[in-house]
């Protein structure tokens, strides 16, 4: 004997794809009832053959559903494997990106070192052409004063630029206020003209 849950489970398995197997079960039950109530041997044998045919169809559908279920399970396992492989590849790619970033940093550092060496070589050549230390110190002192002078000039220019920026901001604010005043005056003038026109119209009436 089957419990109600087992009957429902088998019924869902048989009619899993909705291809009319539920109707076949109903026909099977009706055929069984007719077989039980059959009067003659020929009629009973006919109903028996129909039941066997319907059972075969239901078993075929159930087997197909189980095959589809197993295939879905294998597909899920395959997808999980692919997902894990993708995760591994992503880690490898991330490590490669990190390695590339580190190589770029090393290349930049090598370029800076090469540039510094070139500057050192150029400076060494200048020193060789100017071996007099006293003269070099005088030139360095002159350059220091010039640099200080340029620094003062830069500060003055920045102060002037900041002042001009503030003045320009004040000018823009003034222009905006003036424009707002003109617009208000224009609206007031239009209102007065409209009022005068209305008064003239009322006077004519």
TrEMBL record:
GO annotation, biological process: mRNA export from nucleus; mRNA processing
UniProt keyword terms in alphabetical order: Coiled coil, Nucleus
Chain intervals for the UniProt region annotation (Disordered): 184-205
Pfam families: THOC7
Subcellular localization(s) per the UniProt record: Nucleus
Entry's Gene Ontology cellular component terms: THO complex part of transcription export complex
Reported function: Component of the THO subcomplex of the TREX complex which is thought to couple mRNA transcription, processing and nuclear export, and which specifically associates with spliced mRNA and not with unspliced pre-mRNA. Required for efficient export of polyadenylated RNA. Plays a key structural role in the oligomerization of the THO-DDX39B complex.
PANTHER family tied to this protein: MAINTENANCE OF KILLER 16 MAK16 PROTEIN-RELATED, THO COMPLEX SUBUNIT 7 HOMOLOG
Family affiliation: Belongs to the THOC7 family.
Protein name: THOC7 protein
Organism: Leptocoma aspasia
Gene encoding the protein: Thoc7
